[in-house]
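Project outcomes to date are best conveyed with an example. Our students and postdoctoral researchers have been running inverse folding experiments weekly, and each run begins with a structure described purely in tokens. The record below, which covers 258 residues, was selected by the lab manager from last quarter's runs and is presented without edits.
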């Protein structure tokens, strides 16, 4: 008995719900391809069309380029990660507890979805998009930044820190979180002892670092002005002469004895 390939249901042209449904199917297929084949290098518009039974040109009705697909994937991931972070950070009786919960949720999300981490933080086409608006202009990005901003702001107020150091504390938090994730997810050859303990210690180190950042801020190394003793060449109350001055005094002394 001959088996015929099942045709895709016809979509109503111009129907918004149908259009969005197909876009979601394309995104699901894109995530599946990148997960199975180790990254976005395996992703192509022709491959996506074949995977979904669309014509080679038909897929362009929904996304006009591979960059646009990556753009949508990035936004989808960020919304999901932000929801996880925001939900966890709503729990806790203190600002420190809420910040700790938010950091932990952020780390666990990316550890649970390593392919998402590589897509967002390590893919050249994501870091330097072409033909689409900047990723940082997306509402999803603004929402993610806002969640971290609010948690940090409340933490600074609770520890009595300097509000002017908010951005420095934010940058430190992000650098340490992404650094931990890169080491944890990319450096698979290192014999990590206990992932849960490593994560817990990292979170505590981030909190301590942020607290130090806002309560003991440093703006770089400072050099104190020379003291009056150094300016006058005095050391311990006596005048310290330069070698040239010493030779001059010696010559005058010798001339006086001749």
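After processing, the design step wrote out the following sequence:
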């Amino acid at each position: 008995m001959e088996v015929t390939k099942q045709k895709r249901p016809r979509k109503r042209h111009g129907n918004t719900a149908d259009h969005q449904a197909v876009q979601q199917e394309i995104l699901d297929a894109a995530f599946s391809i990148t997960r199975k084949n180790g990254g976005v290098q395996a992703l192509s518009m022709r491959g996506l069309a074949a995977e979904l039974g669309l014509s080679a040109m038909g897929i362009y009705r929904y996304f006009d380029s591979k960059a646009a697909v990556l753009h949508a994937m990035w936004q989808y991931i960020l919304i999901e990660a932000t929801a996880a972070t925001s939900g966890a950070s709503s729990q806790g009786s203190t600002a420190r507890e809420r910040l700790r919960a938010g950091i932990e949720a952020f780390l666990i999300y990316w550890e649970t979805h390593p392919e998402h981490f590589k897509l967002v933080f390590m893919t050249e086409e994501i870091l330097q998009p072409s033909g689409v608006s900047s990723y940082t202009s997306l509402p999803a990005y603004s929402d993610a930044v806002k969640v971290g901003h609010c948690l940090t702001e409340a933490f600074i107020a609770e520890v009595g820190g300097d509000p002017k150091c908010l951005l420095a504390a934010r940058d430190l938090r992000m650098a340490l979180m992404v650094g931990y994730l890169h080491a944890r997810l990319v450096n698979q050859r290192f014999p990590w002892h206990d992932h849960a303990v490593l994560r817990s210690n990292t979170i505590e180190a981030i909190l301590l670092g942020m607290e130090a950042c806002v309560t003991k801020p440093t703006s770089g190394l400072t050099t104190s002005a020379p003291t009056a003793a150094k300016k006058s060449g005095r050391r311990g109350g006596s005048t310290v002469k330069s070698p040239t001055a010493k030779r001059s005094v010696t010559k005058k002394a010798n001339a006086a004895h001749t």
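The first strand starts at residue 234 and ends at 235. Confidence is low (pLDDT under 50) at residues 1-6, 220-240. The training component of this project remains on track.
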